[in-house]
Amino acid sequence: MTIERYTEKNCTQNTALFGNTSGNNFPVGTLNDPNSLRFCDESGRMPFRPEFKLAGNMPLWKGFEVSTTWQNDPEFQKYVNWTLNANSVYPVDCVGCPAGARIFPAAGQPGALTNASLFIPVVAPGTRFYDRLNQLDLGIKRTFKFREKFRAQAQLDVFNVTNSHTVLVENQTLGTTANTSIKAFKGGGPGGQPTQILQARLLRLAVQFHF
Questions:
Q1: Any bridge partners for residue 209, and if so which?
Q2: What is the pLDDT of residues 10-65, one digit of tens each?
Q3: From CA 80, how far away is CA 121, in angstroms rounded?
Q4: Strand-pair partners of 206
Q5: Domain limits, the chain
Q6: Which residues of 150-169 are buried (b: 16+ CB within 10 A; e: fewer)?
């Protein structure tokens, strides 16, 4: 069993956001994006998370040998981000804002940054994690001896015996359209669309010859 945690503090503000963008002259270094300081310090937010691993093998009779590996890994931190650009609009059910209007009303106007975008972290560190990874692997093999220097070994391995389908990676970007899906990413609610899950149960047959 291993217990550890990972925290990061990266509070360097980005002062060189834009330059000459689509023919719009905008002095580099005159803007400070406050979103670069949002949740920049994870100190005190991240909990300790234990990791469990167990492995062993046992010889049996008539050349048989069984082995097993079990791991229960800590969940990974989720980082959910929201990207807004000049075409982003407020959702239709937005309270206290002009529904359907541009979030950047000056977009497209003379001197405006027509293709500028904002990168906004949505979820505070230490509040959302993936499910723990739980995987059990089993194996059995037998050694056949033909002569003093010749032998063969047949082996059967079963990975992910319980057929666990833990989500490993999911979509963590809300996209450029402001919509109510942001509500699903807050607190302990459902996350984004899974893009990678743990490999399903897998069988492997192997034969080795030694001479």
A1: 152
A2: 887 655 544 444 444 444 444 566 777 888 888 878 888 899 999 999 999 888 99
A3: 6
A4: 155
A5: 52-210
A6: eeebebebebbeeebebbee
